[in-house]
Amino acid sequence: MHLTRLRNAAVLIALVCYLCSGCWDQRPLEDLGLIYGLGLDRSEFNENLFVVTTVYPLFADTRRAPNEVDTVTAPSFGLAVEQWRNRHAQQFAPRKLRVILLGEDLARKGAEDPLLSVMQYTQLNEHARLAVARPRAEDLLRVKPLANERVATFTEQLLLANEQVAAAAQVTLSEAISRFSAADSDPLVPILAEDKMGERLVVIGSGLFSGLKMVGELDERETQLVLAMRGDVGDVVYSPATGVTDVLLSSYPQVRMQNPKAKYRVKLDGERLRVKVELHTGFSLQQYSSAEDMSDTEDTNSVAQSVASNLTLAIEDLIAKMQATTADPLGLGQHLRVKQGQDFDIKLFREQWRNAEVEVGVKTAFIRCNTMNTTIMPQKK
Fold first, then answer.
1. For 49-63, what is each residue's pLDDT tens digit?
2. Using CA atoms, how far apart are residues 169 and 195, in angstroms rounded to an integer?
3. Which H or E run contains 30?
4. CA-angle at 353, arms to 349 and 354, nearest 5°
């Protein structure tokens, strides 16, 4: 009898736990402020204050807007969250955060303090994508891409689409912080702006960062070249200015670089830093105008030499821009840190990198001429 009662009690307790398992600490979606877009700006009136913009969805059927945008001004991210909680009935829930936009003014003056403050918030999604907003994050987060489209979701998809076509670099919050903390390669952060109609967001290039401070910017063409040199992409379309030759009649043929691989040799010769860059890549022509039969080996070798010469000049100009800003998106400092170990000094390296002697070499291999509707077919001799 006693065992039967115990067995019945155990079954009853198990049944109650099973039925109530989904009810503990339950919160309706309407009570959660699911933050999926975050903007950080420096106050226009007080440099010691930050403007924190949050984007969260609305679930009420009576609202026409797909999301709510709110702005809070505070000395730190933590205090901004407290003000947000005092202002709203919902719970501040940033676990689904998708994008973090840094206002350009904040990025150029240094985003270390606000980003580290954001990173200390334990409930934040560390894999949110990072981007620079031109001119201010609070303005871009109020852009309505489409009537039924949420701006943060659209921004995330925009960054993903540009990453797939190698038109923009990608970096998450955790990657940017870890690179800064480990003195690894500097992040390359996409720059967003409104289009000419003021209705859409577009990627216009990438920001060069030295640590967590934006010190320069690259256009789309330069960004593609850096991504190819870093090995982030295996297939990138590039338009080198080859100049009109006997073979190519177009000054800007469209070249698809395939499997680009770069090697770096970094050594310290006394106080002088010496860097050797070697880029090997195959390529195919996509949009071009030719006066010769491109199946001829002599002509294709001529084109390959022309493309290699142009890439060499482009890389030299690109590296000169990096040296002037002390930005190191290629991770050259990491090569030197491996050799020096604990003696490596990131501040000293940046000064050495600014005055480094750089040698660039490019080797190209012609693969084929792709057939496209926009291709002007070669004229026969």
1. 999 998 887 655 545
2. 19
3. none
4. 120
**Rounded (to 5) percent helix, strand, coil in the chain:** 35, 30, 35
C-alpha–C-alpha distance, residues 138 and 102, integer Å: 9
Q: Checking phi first, is residue 154 left (phi over 0); if not, alpha (psi -120 to 50) or beta?
A: alpha
pTM over 0.70, yes/no = yes
Give the three-class secondary structure for 243.
coil
Token output for 97: 């955060």
Burial class (CB in 10 A: 0-12, 13-18, 19+), 147: exposed
The CA distance from 378 to 285, in Å, is 11
Residue 336, CB half-sphere, CA atoms under 13 Å: how many? Answer: 27
Please identify which residue in the block is written with the tokens 């990072």.
130
Phi/psi at 116 (nearest 5 deg)? -65, -35
- Collapsed DSSP state (helix, strand, coil) of residue 1: coil
Residue-wise pLDDT tens digits, 180-200: 777 678 888 999 998 877 667
Provide the angle, in degrees to the nearest 10, between the axes of the packed helices 77-87 and 112-119: 60
CB 312 within 8 A of CB 281: no
Closest CA to 329 of 223, 239, 238, 258: 223
User: What residues contact 117, with CB distance under 8 A and at least 6 apart?
Assistant: 76, 77, 78
d(CA 241, CA 340): 40
Give me the numbers of helices (H) and strands (E) for the chain, helices first please: 11, 14
Q: Is 67 helix (H, G, I), strand (E, B) or coil?
A: strand
The dihedral sign for the CA sequence 289, 295, 298, 303: positive
